[in-house]
Amino acid sequence: MKVLNTHKRVLNEPKQNIAELLATLSKENDKIWPIEKWPAMRFRNGIKIGAKGGHGPIRYSVEKYNPNEIIQFQFSKPKGFNGIHKFELKELPNKKTEIKHTIEMETKGKGTLVWFFAIHSLHNALIEDGLDKIENYFSNDKKVTAWNVWVKIIRKLLVKKRKK
Fold it and tell me: Domains along the chain?
């Protein structure tokens, strides 16, 4: 199954300010990844081309890295996830910046079922939480994107599974 999943947010901040946040991704002072609600993104030796890491059961390696423009990851797990995900920054007029997260992949076999029934909804919630975190870094009006019912159900089931 072909998957193209994109999330964008336009921020009233110059690109350099957002690039500084993007450079903290997976570090102790991570200002992008919503570790308050989701498994942290981790890389043993930080983000650099060739580094291997991931979050939760999702594994990938860094394929492209320019903290002022793009971080692109190549999936290695789960099996059946063949493709990439990436964060991109685009400078807009009037000192605004678009941050975009994209998954481009082809799922196969069990990977299709895992994506369709679980990961897709969880991923959407995670990325929106991350975009909220970035937006909230620069704002006093705190944004919180509500999770849909399916995300709440899957998360409850996963917590029960971990307790067993």
Answer: 2-163 (3.30.530.20)
Q: Verify cis geometry, omega within 30 degrees of 0, for the bond prior to 67.
A: no
Mean pLDDT by 10 residues, the chain (164 residues): 98 97 93 95 92 96 95 97 98 98 97 95 98 96 95 87 60
**Cα–Cα dist 139/133, whole Å:** 10
Give the pLDDT score at 160. Answer: 67
User: SS3 letters for the chain?
Assistant: CEEEEEEEEEECCCHHHHHHHHCCCCCCCCCCCCCCCCCCCEECCCCCCCCEEEECCEEEEEEEEECCCEEEEEEEECCCEEEEEEEEEEEECCCEEEEEEEEEEEECCHHHHHHHHHHHHHHHHHHHHHHHHHHHHCCCCCCCCCCCHHHHHHHHHHHHHHHC
